Amino acid sequence: MSKAWENSSRDSLLPMSEPLTADLTLVSGEGLRLRRLTEVDAPDLARISADDEVRRWSDPRALTFEQAVEVIDNAKPAWKPSGQSWLLAITGETDDTLRGTIGLDFETPDRATVGYRILPEWRGQGVATAALKLVSAWAFETVLELVRLEAWIVPGNDASVVVAERAGYTRESIARSRCRFGDEHVDVIVYAFVRDDL
């Protein structure tokens, strides 16, 4: 996966001085708030990573509390205007209870992948779908060069397929050996949302 664009004018990727409000909110709506993760979220971040369903479909590695803190600390530099990725907390719009996480990773300035993980007690309540709609709309409104968002879903993860489709993503293909999963590369179903879908 080429990252040659990193040496180009990356400051044009996000034309703003700071994407967050004073309370670390990126965007809110649909009954949710997407904000920067903080150290307070470390226990729940570790709990998400240890969940059986997350490990089955997303990443087989469970984080310790210390590793979760490290993930949060390492994510902070990416919040600059020239950053290429975000890992966001999904909370209630009027409360700060963590419901899950959602992330954007820019492959190039015009294309990014999106991924989401929801705590067990919040699944089946539309949280992932609402968060995906929010972050997708925000990304296209904010990143002027962005043309395409992709969700990569491991075949068999029917719940994630439903989320992507309800959020307006279109199934396009199977990408063979596209995603690293533990010690191996696995096939993924590619779902896409393009600027014309807005």
| β-strand number | 8
Query: How helical, in percent, are the residues?
Result: 25-40%
Please give the alpha-carbon distance between the first and last residues.
27 Å
| Oligomeric description of these chains | single chain
- In terms of per-residue confidence, which ranges show pLDDT below 50 for 5 or more consecutive residues? 1-18
Q: Rounded to an integer, what's the Rg over CA atoms?
A: 16 Å
- Percentage of residues in DSSP E strands: 25-35%
Number of helices: 5
**Spatial ordering of strands, largest sheet:** 1-2-3-4-5-6-8-7
Which architecture of the domain at 22-148 does the CATH hierarchy give at level 2? 3-Layer(aba) Sandwich
SS class: alpha+beta
For CATH, the homologous superfamily of the domain at 22-148 is named as Gcn5-related N-acetyltransferase (GNAT)
Q: According to CATH, what is the topology of the domain at 22-148?
A: Aminopeptidase
Mean pLDDT: 85
Topology readout:
Elements: E1 25-29, E2 32-36, H1 42-50, H2 52-57, H3 65-75, E3 85-92, E4 98-108, E5 111-118, H4 127-142, E6 148-153, H5 158-166, E7 170-181, E8 184-194
Parallel strand pairs: 5-6
Antiparallel strand pairs: 1-2, 2-3, 3-4, 4-5, 6-8, 7-8
